[in-house]
Structures are given as structure tokens and as C-alpha cells.
Design a protein that fits this description.
Structural class: alpha/beta
Strand order of the largest sheet: 1-10-9-8-7-6-5-2-3-4
Number of helices: 15
CATH class: Alpha Beta
CATH topology: UDP-N-acetylmuramoyl-L-alanine:D-glutamate ligase
CATH superfamily: Ribokinase
Radius of gyration: 18 Å
Number of strands: 10
Strand content: 5-15%
Helix content: 40-55%
Shape: globular
């Protein structure tokens, strides 16, 4: 395993940075790289100025994933956020995400016409997969989005588990995948140790082959872009190894893309903000007590650091 792999997995920083500096298409993402990506708001603006984000997320027993998606997007500045959620979790999501718009569907009789109207026709960016584990026909929802969504599409969690790689090439607009190492191994039908060696090259090769943006989540999250550029994030800590952390990241990513930020910059800023919120949270709460909900609470502090 190279020093670069060790760094991405959370070890051997000094040797890895020397190695990174020798590679032209691999870059660290630090504060100065993202400081001007999120602009100060113009005086004459309204909620439509800051994008419409649509989520297809959550399921029975996993309502929290939808709540985290919605609230993270709101905290990151989206003007309008909508959740397309199973009716059986409506009361939980509605109570815990007051500012979001919610619309429901019947998991036993999915209306794709309603999905088209409420999410695809409505949104500037769509995101799906978070907490969708307990929807029997979720693969049909995912395939419908891949076939019909003309805007950027962020795919997380169960969306990655149900994804058929050949379907990626059908999508004309940007796709963002957000797997952790286990999900990436499953997607490639490979052993997880295979993913943990030559991480940069494997991430870059995947992104180039399938023309997608890959966010490989880990101790140092890696962003691989279809133009061959790779970015290694420098924020985050072990306290973020907690249920729901990835759902917050998906919300942040969708939010910044929906606000019209160029996609590569949106991804770098969202991943950096997510980790920075975790770093601020750990300073106040410690690594053991940090929760995904805390990440959302500290996102404003992180955004302030990027917009000072």
C-alpha cells in the first residue's frame, strides 16, 4: 500500500503530501481552495434564486435519512427543498423538517407520473437513495430517475446498492455517486481490500469510464471527476463515523449544485463543509458524542468560515 493510500485512509500525512505535489491531476482541497466558491448573497434575491432541490429518500424505519437530507440542504442555503417520501413516514418527516416541502407516495403502488411532476419537473437537481433500503420496488424508482431526469442526479446509499453500471452511460447530465468503501466494493463486485489499494487510480478510472463524479467517502474523502481531476479532502474526523453522516453530505452536495455552482466546485465545497462542520462539532462535543444531526447544526459555522 502506497503512502498516498495510507494518507487517504487516515495515516502518514507528511510523506503523502510530498507525493501528491508531484502528481499534476491530484489536488488537496484546503480552505483557500473553497473560500470563494460560496458567494455572499445579493440584496435583490428571493427563494427561487437559490435553487430547487428534490429528494427521493427515506423509508419505514429510516425516516431520519430523509430528514437529514432535507435539513442539510436547507442549512446549506437552498431556496426550496422538497422530499418525495413514503406515506408511512410522512408524520415524522413533516414534524422534523418544517421548512421543507413534502409529498408522499404509496410504496405498494408507486406513481411515476407523480414522481415526474413533483421531483423531475420541479427540481434543479435531484438526489436519491438515502434511507431507501426498505422500499421493495426502489430499483424501479432509481431506473425511472436515470431514464427521465434531465438535471444533475446525486445517488447515495441504496441507490448505489441497486445501481446497474450499464445504466450510468444512458444519462446525459451529470451524475454524482457517493459510496463508502463497502458500497464501492459491492458496486464493482470486488473485495473491499481491492478498493483500499491504488485508491486514486481506481477512483479516477471509474469516473473516466462511466463519465460520473465519484465521491468516495472515507477518512480522507476522494472526489474523482470525469475530466481526470482528483481532489482529496482535508477536513473531517473519526467522530463523523456515525449513522446519517452520509445523508447530511448528500443534502449538502445537492444543495450547492442546485444553487448553480459549477459542479466540480460544488462537490469540493460540499465535502469540505461537511468535514469542517464535523471538526467544529468535535471541538465542542468530542468524537464519541457527535451525531449526524450535530453536523447540520454546525454547518452554519462552517459556511461562515468560507464566506468571511
Amino acid at each position: 500500500m502506497s503512502s498516498l493510500d495510507n494518507y487517504i485512509l487516515g495515516m502518514d500525512e507528511e510523506a503523502a503530501i510530498k507525493e501528491i505535489n508531484k502528481i499534476t491531476d491530484v489536488h488537496l482541497t484546503e480552505l483557500d481552495d473553497v473560500k470563494n466558491i460560496i458567494k455572499k448573497r445579493i440584496r435583490n434575491s428571493h427563494k427561487g434564486t437559490y435553487g430547487k432541490v428534490g429528494f427521493v429518500s427515506g423509508s419505514k424505519g429510516m425516516a431520519g435519512a430523509a430528514v437529514l437530507n432535507l435539513n442539510a440542504a436547507l442549512r446549506c442555503g437552498s431556496g426550496l427543498v422538497k422530499g418525495f417520501i413514503p406515506g408511512e413516514i410522512y408524520s415524522v418527516v413533516e414534524a422534523m423538517s418544517l421548512e421543507a416541502i413534502t409529498c408522499t407516495y404509496d410504496v405498494n403502488n408507486i406513481s411515476f407520473e407523480k414522481l415526474q411532476k413533483e421531483i423531475i419537473d420541479y427540481s434543479d437537481v435531484a438526489a436519491t437513495g438515502s434511507g431507501c433500503t426498505n422500499i421493495t420496488d426502489y430499483a424501479e424508482i432509481l431506473n425511472y430517475l436515470l431514464d427521465n431526469c434531465k438535471q444533475p442526479l446525486v445517488i447515495d446509499a441504496e441507490g448505489i446498492n441497486k445501481l446497474k453500471l450499464n445504466n450510468l452511460k444512458k444519462h446525459e447530465n451529470p451524475i454524482v455517486l457517493t459510496p463508502h468503501y463497502g458500497e464501492m466494493a459491492k458496486l464493482l463486485n470486488a473485495d473491499i481490500d481491492y478498493i483500499r489499494t491504488d485508491i486514486i487510480e481506481k477512483s479516477k478510472d471509474f469516473s473516466l469510464k462511466y463519465k460520473v463524479y465519484l465521491i468516495l467517502k472515507g477518512a480522507r474523502t476522494v472526489i474523482a471527476c470525469p475530466d481526470g481531476q482528483v481532489f482529496i479532502n482535508t477536513t473531517g474526523n473519526p467522530g463523523m463515523a456515525t449513522a446519517g453522516s452520509g445523508d447530511v453530505l448528500t443534502g449538502a452536495i445537492a444543495s450547492l449544485i442546485g444553487q448553480g455552482i459549477e459542479i466540480k466546485n460544488a462537490l469540493r465545497a460540499a465535502v469540505y463543509l461537511h468535514g469542517l462542520a464535523g471538526d467544529i462539532g468535535v471541538m465542542n462535543l468530542g468524537e464519541y458524542s457527535l451525531t449526524a444531526g450535530d453536523l447540520i447544526n454546525y454547518l452554519p459555522n462552517a459556511i461562515n468560515k468560507l464566506t468571511d
